[in-house]
Design goal:
The chain contains 10 helices and 43 strands. The longest helix is centred in the C-terminal third of the chain and has 25 residues, at about 615-635. By secondary structure, it is mainly β. It is about 15% helix and about 35% strand. The model has no long low-confidence stretch (mean pLDDT about 95). The strands form 9 sheets. Strands 6, 7, 8, 9, 10, 11 and 12 form a 7-stranded antiparallel sheet that branches. Strands 13, 14, 15, 16, 17, 18 and 19 form a 7-stranded antiparallel sheet that branches. Strands 26-25-24-23-22-28-27 form a 7-stranded parallel sheet, covered by helices on one side. A hairpin with a 2-residue loop joins strand 37 and strand 38 (about 805-810). Helix 1 runs parallel beside helix 2, helix 3 packs parallel to helix 4 and helix 8 (about 615-635) runs parallel beside helix 9. It is globular and about 105 Å long.
Length: about 900
């Protein structure tokens, strides 16, 4: 409550929804604010029994309540507001064995790799000035861009004078660089503590300050010293830059007592793209935890990534130095105790580049090793539960609503509804790109969970002014939306420690039931592609992903060329074929993550080189459909074992594009849309990518019992290949159940595999058609397939509930299969009706087979007269 009046005001605040009414009276100070809370503890009317719950798409209805808030002064309403909200409960499960602490924040303010520190003291009269460093802050030595000596605001007395030092890391970074007046050169010491640099001012002069411009390798503590003869120095001032230890996690592993001379940590896979790195390796007996047998012991390693990160740094007793291997798996570090020692515990202080798995080994001779303990640090990634039910987070990344920021509310509602139609359960508001209330409202209404990023990608400022305050205000603005399930600190990176702590606290304070995670692609989630075409069968191989797991994967995608009509709108007046610079202007690039050359090669390998845009766009839909279906079916195949979420990069286009979309900027649909829709069905039957193991999938809250899965195989003329396979299955709620494997008929070449899932009464719940082939070139049989003819019979337009609907029956009148039939609804002028929602599209028909399809579009489009529904197969005549 905000009071704009000049006097304190007594206000009655009332909240009403459904049959619930609660109110309270508060006094708001003049020009001030008061927070009013209605809690079930105080207001028993809020203790709801059997409330209508908000559910994600496919798991139940996203029920919303209409809340009316009224502020009354005296007997007159002063203000009112209506809010829609939902009742739901989120749960979050994950396991992260190694949790790296935030990077330490030094007392120095580094900008572009430099921090200026001025130290003042009583006026001195001397010829020599020394900076005597103590401990180093990093694994390097100490390093400074410049060292200045002055009295007050006077000139730099050290500029151009003779400088010497305890040592330098190389001939390039000598002490003269610190006094040469060049801000791009620096002195860097050896990689040791207790280093110094001193300047001969040429004669005894007065001064009362020194200014050091540190490079990142600063001193944790140092003393300013002076001398008249350059030999005997007197301390003038001691300075502390003490910095907490950061970027580390301690892992202690115990095992049965061992007696051996050598111990090795044999790493397996890395947890990051770097090698493996540890600040400290300690070996102990649990009975004597203060005795570190590895301290200052002889040590070797498989590799080191630089001279400053050798294996001796892990046993030198300095918690700020570290060993870091080359960026390869299978690295090791081993300690020689000089004589047999007894121990039963190893403690490793990991830097953020830790080992995902490793083995502790012992040896008597340093040659033959015995495994003592195998350790896994693999993360069990985030799983989201809604109202006690595990929910497979399947969806896409949403960037800008529209390139020119001119999107209308109806278009936002339409596109979110298209996400629901694709059976999605989540939209990631990437970088918080949309701040439209209409987006959140549409997600509430459609049952789409929202992962909401804050706004940073790439390098942060250490503490941007106002950033956390704006984030807190954003949370308060949108927190009433039941769809918001995650607040994320940054895209593919971690916010600086101060910002991260502030964001975490803001979420805890303003939206405490919601999960905050700092990084969109590491920790308890993963991501980073692939973003280009890969063989669909490889999506089921977790080794192609950066984290070597399916997990909760926040970005995956590939190029997507949409239908020819939309592509012609993309190229405009430019030549449409072959791909040219106008395509490049719309993301067609061989050097970016999309690597469109692999996509075009995949299309050409399957169906031959195209001679026109129409031919290429038509052929592209086979690859679009097959690949997008395979992405989601790979996660289905590993559901809850190692697969909890998958988000496309991206699902919503802000402008005409050739990549990373499911529908296009015109809001027309294509093979990617329907391949995704198929793979995301709430009740689904599939053949696992790569293995052809048939699986029934149940992404609902109700168990499926007594169901039947059936597989049939057909050649391209619709003739049955072998005997159908069938099996009864029971599938628990939010689970899958595997059945039989479908073998490939001998010598069949390209053929169809038709799967069905029926309930105990024989009602069709899901069907799924695969075109199976060995070598990609086998798909070219479609080019030689006889032409077939499709007929359509379309009824009249019906309007109800703001939607216009038409039903059409499409039939294959020929004697070959109709391959990947595309339906398109058009008005009396022949223009596409967009957006249109098809309950089936991009399907196959056997000879003589027909399909009844319902098509709907927003009634506001005011399509007059009868509509036309066209049906076109890859091999249909005309």
């Amino acid at each position: 409550m905000r009071n704009a009046a000049a006097t304190a005001t007594t206000v009655t605040v009332r909240a009403e929804f459904d049959k619930v009414k609660v109110e309270t009276t508060v006094t708001v100070p003049a020009g001030g604010n008061t927070t009013v809370e209605f809690t079930p503890e105080r207001f028993h009317a809020l203790r709801l029994r059997n409330p209508r719950l908000w559910w994600p798409n496919g798991y139940g209805e996203p029920h919303l309540y209409d809340l009316k808030l009224t502020a009354t002064v005296g007997r007159k309403a002063s203000d009112s507001r209506g809010v829609r909200f939902g009742i739901r409960e989120f749960g979050y499960d994950w396991h992260q064995p190694i949790q790296i602490s935030p990077a330490a924040t030094p007392p120095l303010d580094f900008v572009d790799g430099a921090a200026t520190q001025t130290v003042t003291f009583d006026r001195q009269h001397a010829r020599h000035v020394r900076i005597q460093a103590g401990r180093r802050a990093t694994g390097w030595g100490v390093s400074m861009w410049s060292l200045s000596v002055a009295e007050g605001d006077g000139p730099d007395l050290a500029r151009g004078k003779a400088a010497t030092a305890s040592g330098s890391e190389n001939d390039t970074n000598g002490p003269g660089n610190a006094v040469d007046g060049d801000p791009t050169t620096r002195w860097a010491s050896k990689y040791e503590d207790d280093q110094y640099i001193q300047v001969d001012l040429g004669a005894a002069v007065d001064f009362d300050r020194v200014t050091i411009v540190w490079e990142q390798a600063y001193a944790l503590d140092y003393r300013v010293q002076v001398s008249t003869d350059g030999e005997s120095f007197t301390d003038v001032k001691s300075v502390s830059n003490e910095t907490p230890l950061g970027s580390r996690a301690t892992q202690v592993e115990t095992f049965p007592e061992q007696t051996a001379r050598h111990l090795r940590i044999q790493a397996g896979t890395r947890a990051t793209s770097w090698g493996v790195s540890m600040w400290t390796l300690s070996v102990q007996r649990q009975a004597e935890p203060d005795v570190d047998l590895a301290l200052h012991a002889s040590v070797q390693a498989s590799s080191a990534d630089s001279d400053s990160t050798g294996p001796e740094q892990a046993v030198d007793g300095n918690p700020r130095t570290r060993w870091a291997s080359k960026a390869e798996d299978g690295q090791w570090i081993q300690v020689d105790f000089a004589q047999p020692a007894t121990f039963d515990q190893v403690a490793i202080v990991w830097e953020q580049a830790y080992a995902r798995d490793f083995v502790i080994q012992v040896s008597d001779d340093g040659q033959r090793w015995t495994d003592v303990k195998s350790v896994s640090n693999k993360i069990t990634e985030l799983k989201i539960n809604v109202n006690g039910v595990p929910v497979f987070a399947r969806g896409g990344n949403w960037g800008w609503d529209e390139l020119l920021r001119r999107v209308l509310p109806d278009r936002l509602a339409d596109t979110v509804e298209m996400h629901r139609d694709m059976n999605f359960t989540m939209i990631r508001n990437w970088l918080g790109s949309s701040n439209r209330e209409e987006l959140y409202q549409a997600c509430d209404e459609q049952g789409i969970l929202v992962w909401n990023d804050f706004w940073q990608a790439g390098q942060f400022l250490p503490n941007p002014p106002g950033y956390v305050d704006i984030a807190a205000d954003t949370i308060r603005r949108y927190r009433h939306h039941p769809s918001i399930v995650v607040w994320c600190g940054a895209n593919e990176g971690d916010p600086p420690p101060i910002v991260d702590a502030g964001l975490k606290q803001a979420v805890a304070t303003e939206h405490p039931e919601i999960l905050y995670i700092p990084n969109s692609a590491s920790g308890i989630v993963s991501g980073r592609g692939p973003y280009h075409w890969v063989d669909p069968a490889t999506y089921v191989d977790n080794k192609i992903y950066e984290a070597d797991s399916f997990g909760f994967h926040t970005e995956i995608g590939m190029p997507v060329v949409s239908v020819v009509e939309s592509m012609r709108n993309l190229v405009g007046d430019e030549p449409e074929w072959p791909p040219s610079v106008v395509w490049n202007h719309h993301d067609w690039s061989t050097v970016g993550n999309q690597r469109v050359d692999t996509y075009q090669e995949a299309i050409d390998a399957r169906l031959g080189e195209s001679g026109s845009l129409d031919e290429f766009a038509t052929r592209a839909q086979f690859v679009n459909y097959e690949s997008h279906r395979a992405m989601f079916e790979a996660w289905n195949a590993n559901l809850w074992q190692d697969a909890t979420g998958l988000l496309l990069w991206m699902s919503h286009p802000a402008w005409h594009s050739t990549v990373w979309q499911t529908y296009d900027y015109d809001l027309d649909v294509n093979g990617a849309y329907f391949g995704t829709r198929k793979g995301c069905e709430p009740l689904h039957v599939q053949a696992d990518p790569g293995t052809w193991r048939v699986r029934a999938v149940n992404h609902t809250t109700t168990a499926l019992t007594g169901a039947t899965v059936t597989a049939r195989r057909y050649d391209l003329r619709g003739r049955s290949l072998g005997t159908p396979q069938s099996q009864r299955v029971d599938v628990a709620a939010s689970a899958t159940s595997a059945a039989f494997t479908v073998p490939a008929p001998d010598g069949a070449g390209l053929h169809l595999v038709l799967l069905e899932l029926r309930d105990s009464r024989g009602r069709l719940l899901s069907e799924n058609t695969y075109w199976r082939y060995g070598a990609a070139e086998e798909m070219r049989a479609l080019n030689d397939l006889g032409r077939t003819r499709l007929s359509t019979e379309t009824g009249g337009v019906r309007t109800s509930g703001g939607r216009a609907t038409v039903t059409t029956t499409v039939r294959n009148e020929g004697d070959t299969v109709a391959a990947l039939v595309r339906l398109s609804v058009r008005d009396s002028r022949g223009d596409r009706v967009l957006p249109a929602r098809y309950d089936e599209n991009y399907f196959w028909l056997l000879p003589g087979e027909s399909r009844l399809v319902e098509i709907a579009w927003p009634a506001r489009l005011d399509v007059r007269g009868r509509v036309q529904v066209s049906a076109r197969a890859y091999n249909s005549a005309g």
